[in-house]
């Protein structure tokens, strides 16, 4: 019998026609090398074109009648995606209307899509075959020059754990050689050396202490020692002279060294926490893929519930995945997890360079870590045997990716939980309506935590009506009530958080004579003033121009800034309270890597009295000295052109109010608004989620919105506005023929920003309850419009969109 192994491969040609596996022959020379999850190079189409592909499956025979082409070569010598991930890609592509290849790529760290080299790293230097392979060298670069026999040998040795394969990114800082410090001494010797020093040799003592505490992380880069730990170069030189340490060169860093968080131990649980931990633990133990919705008021101690259930999973010899919104990936949150589980934790956040990210990914893949904490894309972490998945602040829109593939990490988590037979915990003080409604129906198990830790009261909230004359905007943005509150807080040496609720723009220019607004010539959005650049800038395409002195439209000099920016509020604060130390946190002050964390750290150490910021300061922060929260303009989110406007407003106000009075001092909140009677504002003031939920559900029911209806958003983009409209109407007609009478079709309408980067955008919204044809129809439409993509058309389908604008 002729053995003719065949591989099913998803090729890297993102079109509708190629969105299915293609069969290729596995040449004899690669017969036991090619396995699912590996990337290979294959010939594609006519001509000599070679492209990348993912091996999805390997089988013994093929039904294909024609002649199959053989795989040209393997790109990876070990699978980069597990079977679980390969399966996930089918589901994900289907659910998000994306090409499967995009889904597969999304699951890998970006580095693996960039240029990199692969090296053989010997694990067993005694092995004769390893010695032959390396031929006296330290490592062997894997290139496409290697013959098949060598590739097979490499593969065999890898499977027997004699060697490993490492990816090294080209053009990464990682490869730059850096000076680093290490030592031959052990802890005891370091302590002995320290005891021999004179008491005034402070910097030497500090250095030896550092070494003793960080032995496992050595070598540590010289400049990290200097910058992060304040150890001088001369101290290092002296110690080197005395042979207490050695200076070496490192090419690749181990885990990025930070200041070690303090080790924490289990807290004694409150009764509400105990119930939550016990229910979730039972599900972990019994491997039940149950979803829990932990609805706990702000400051009820949800984090401790997460930590103790993670511990439970680890005790069961399983792993745990914890997702948090990117913006909450502050040292505070990370420290809480790392403080409890130490180096068993990998952290994936955008602050890492792509190389560091890859390192963390590798640690997960090698089973060096048991807990992964990360933002949205961490949901694809290559963890094995997951025992628990946690999604903190589950209501956050940022769990949904805005670009292709438009996935919601919450849905992916639920899918993985089914595969891994493990529970999912969704936690929030303000759950999304969708999740809370599912709990109502019994699909999710609802666990409520109604009390704050130590039975601390929820903060007292005062709503200030900005329509009253005494609060008139002519007197500035601070009402007498808020000014008074700030005054008292400062006198008591406590801290305040001031929220400026913005829609994304800071200050734009408007002519008070003719109403002209300065806009981007490409994008149809207002240009924003950037003080540091002294220029007007577009937030979409980056276009910039000088600040106009006269109105380009009517030549009047009465053109000026409109809308309040954080810088403006900061100036007002400085004038009102000259003695107060104000920290400002917005896009401008957090542009540099790590600055976000630094500002919070400073505020946490009470080196400032007032933290002023945009939405990014609203959630997750836990500072015991904060007793006042002020909201300058509660209404901005309320006027969003989005059916979730009330929900977003309620969430924002409840979350930010929840920052006040979390420890032993009582909190106070001042909310300034032009809509003091709106239920979203009134319920937020009482931190009353349940009442808000009932009211909002009623309104959603009346208006046929989520969670009573499913929503799909289809947008059409083209450089020619007329064509965009034509295409949109064609699309609508197509949909109409396949939908039942119960479905609701809205649009086509221009999006809020109808022109971005010289393209026009129109959208159609489908609201429906049960439309078995819709999915297939949308796939067909995608298929048909594919050909038009070349003419500049693009169609995007967003299942359950988080923003409609
Ligand atoms: N059992 C406990 N005993 C003592 N202190 C606790 C306990 N559980 C939690 N805490 C403390 O209570 C504070 C609030 O807890 P945590 O930050 O987890 O609240 P949360 O529910 O996540 O709130 P939010 O939704 O506002 O972020 C923290 O400082 C935490 O250390
Ligand atoms: Zn622009
Ligand atoms: Zn004008």
From TrEMBL:
Belongs to the helicase family. PriA subfamily. SMART domains: DEXDc (SM00487), HELICc (SM00490). Zn(2+) 2 binds at residues 520, 523, 538, 541. Its EC number is 5.6.2.4. Residues 546-700 form the Helicase C-terminal domain. Residues 283-449 form the Helicase ATP-binding domain. It comes from the Bacteria. Keywords: ATP-binding, DNA replication, DNA-binding, Helicase, Hydrolase, Isomerase, Metal-binding, Nucleotide-binding, Primosome, Zinc. It comes from Companilactobacillus kimchii DSM 13961 = JCM 10707. Zn(2+) 1 binds at residues 511, 514, 551, 554. Binds 2 zinc ions per subunit. This is Replication restart protein PriA. Initiates the restart of stalled replication forks, which reloads the replicative helicase on sites other than the origin of replication. Recognizes and binds to abandoned replication forks and remodels them to uncover a helicase loading site. Promotes assembly of the primosome at these replication forks. Component of the replication restart primosome. It catalyses: ATP + H2O = ADP + phosphate + H(+); Couples ATP hydrolysis with the unwinding of duplex DNA by translocating in the 3'-5' direction. InterPro entries: Helicase/UvrB_N (IPR006935), Helicase_ATP-bd (IPR014001), Helicase_C-like (IPR001650), P-loop_NTPase (IPR027417), PriA (IPR005259), PriA_3primeBD (IPR041222), PriA_3primeBD_sf (IPR042115), PriA_C (IPR041236). HAMAP family: PriA. Its cofactor is Zn(2+).
């Amino acid at each position: 019998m002729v053995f003719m192994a065949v591989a099913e491969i998803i090729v890297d040609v993102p079109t509708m026609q190629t969105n299915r596996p293609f069969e290729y022959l596995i040449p004899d020379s690669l017969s036991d090398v090619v396995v699912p999850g590996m990337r290979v190079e294959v010939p594609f189409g006519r001509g000599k074109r070679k492209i990348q592909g993912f091996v999805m499956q390997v089988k013994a025979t093929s039904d294909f009648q024609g002649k199959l082409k053989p795989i040209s070569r393997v790109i990876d010598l070990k699978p980069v995606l597990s079977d679980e991930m390969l399966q996930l890609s089918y589901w994900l592509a289907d659910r998000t209307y994306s090409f499967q290849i995009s889904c597969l790529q999304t699951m890998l760290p970006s580095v693996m899509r960039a240029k990199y080299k692969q090296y053989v790293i010997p694990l067993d230097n005694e092995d004769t075959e390893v010695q032959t392979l390396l031929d006296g060298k330290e490592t062997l670069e894997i290139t496409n020059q290697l013959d098949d026999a060598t590739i097979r040998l490499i593969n065999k040795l890898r499977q027997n754990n004699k060697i490993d394969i490492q990816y090294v990114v080209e053009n990464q800082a990682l490869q730059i050689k850096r000076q680093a410090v290490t030592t031959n001494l052990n802890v005891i010797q370091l302590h002995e050396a320290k005891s021999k020093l004179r008491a005034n040799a402070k910097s030497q003592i500090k250095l030896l202490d550092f070494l003793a505490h960080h032995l496992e992380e050595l070598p540590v880069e010289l400049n990290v020692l200097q910058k992060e730990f304040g150890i001088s170069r001369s101290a290092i030189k002296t110690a080197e002279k005395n042979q207490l340490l050695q200076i070496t060169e490192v090419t690749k860093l181990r885990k990025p060294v930070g200041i070690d968080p303090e080790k924490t131990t289990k807290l004694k649980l409150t009764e509400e926490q105990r119930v939550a931990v016990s229910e979730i633990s039972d599900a972990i133990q019994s491997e039940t893929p149950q979803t829990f919705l932990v609805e706990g008021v702000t400051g009820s101690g949800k984090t401790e519930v997460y930590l103790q259930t993670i511990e439970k999973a680890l005790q069961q010899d399983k792993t745990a995945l914890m997702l948090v919104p990117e913006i909450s990936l502050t040292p505070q949150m990370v420290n809480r997890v790392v403080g409890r589980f130490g180096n068993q934790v990998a952290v994936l956040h955008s602050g890492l360079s792509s190389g560091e990210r890859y390192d963390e990914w590798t640690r997960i893949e090698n089973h060096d870590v048991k807990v992964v904490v990360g933002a949205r894309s961490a949901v694809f972490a290559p963890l094995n045997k997951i025992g628990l998945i946690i999604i903190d602040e589950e209501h956050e829109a940022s769990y949904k990716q805005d670009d292709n593939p438009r996935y919601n990490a919450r849905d992916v988590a639920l899918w993985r939980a089914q595969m891994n037979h493990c529970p999912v915990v969704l936690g929030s003080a303000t759950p999304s309506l969708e999740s809370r409604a599912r709990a109502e129906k019994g699909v999710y198990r609802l666990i409520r935590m109604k009390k704050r830790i130590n039975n601390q009261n929820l903060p007292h909230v005062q709503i200030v009506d900005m329509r009253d004359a005494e609060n008139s905007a002519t007197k500035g943005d601070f009402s007498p009530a808020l000014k008074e509150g700030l005054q008292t807080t400062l006198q008591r040496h406590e801290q305040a958080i001031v929220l400026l609720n913005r829609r994304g723009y800071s200050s734009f220019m408007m002519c008070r004579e003719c109403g002209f607004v300065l806009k981007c010539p490409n994008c149809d959005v207002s240009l924003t003033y950037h003080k540091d650049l002294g220029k007007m800038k577009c937030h979409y395409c980056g276009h910039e121009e000088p600040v106009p002195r006269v109105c380009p439209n009517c030549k009047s000099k009465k053109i000026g800034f409109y809308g309040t920016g954080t810088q403006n509020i900061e100036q007002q604060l400085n004038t009102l309270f000259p003695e107060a130390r104000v920290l400002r946190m917005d896009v401008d002050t957090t542009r540099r890597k790590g600055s976000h964390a630094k500002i919070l750290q400073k505020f946490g150490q009470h080196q400032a009295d007032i933290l002023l910021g945009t939405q990014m300061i609203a959630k997750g922060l836990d500072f015991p000295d904060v007793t006042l929260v002020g909201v300058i303009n509660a209404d901005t989110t309320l006027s969003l052109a989005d059916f979730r406007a009330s929900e977003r407003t309620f969430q924002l106000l409840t979350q930010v109010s929840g920052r006040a009075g979390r420890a032993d001092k009582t909190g106070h909140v001042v909310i300034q608004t032009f809509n003091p009677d709106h239920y979203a504002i009134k319920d937020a003031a009482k931190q009353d989620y349940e009442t808000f939920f009932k009211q909002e559900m009623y309104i959603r029911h009346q208006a046929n919105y989520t969670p009573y209806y499913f929503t799909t958003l289809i947008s059409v983009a083209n450089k020619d506005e007329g064509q965009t409209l034509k295409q949109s109407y064609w699309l609508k007609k197509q949909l109409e023929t396949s939908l039942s009478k119960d479905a609701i079709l809205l649009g086509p309408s221009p999006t809020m920003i109808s022109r971005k980067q010289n393209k026009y955008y129109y959208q159609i919204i489908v609201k429906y309850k049960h439309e078995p044809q819709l999915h297939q129809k949308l796939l067909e439409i995608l298929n048909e419009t594919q050909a038009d993509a070349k003419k500049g058309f693009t169609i995007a389908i967003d299942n359950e969109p988080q923003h409609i604008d």
